[in-house]
Amino acid sequence: MAAVGSSRPPQTVRRHCRIRGQVQMVGFRAFATLHARQLGLRGWVRNTAAGEVEVLAEGPPAPMAEFLGLLQCGPAAAQVTSFQVSDEVAETGLGDFSPVP
Fold it and tell me: Which of 11, 24, 26, 58 is least crowded, fewest Cβ atoms below 10 Å from its Cβ?
């Protein structure tokens, strides 16, 4: 149950991911966006100048776990060599999942 006065839904988790390897120019952002939307997650995905893909996602624990599993593999053309995920405090400020230019 959410705390009194809390505006965030109960059982909401937020994960911040950095994915390295052959992850740009392989459709990774579209892959992440499609699956996040299908799973009902909120957040964003973007490429970084360092050649990584960065993801911030928020939603219920079970869909989040499934999403993280998908990100560890990525689309067929990707080769993930490093996958780092950190927990963050869930907030209500994230909109529908979308790629960030």
Answer: 11
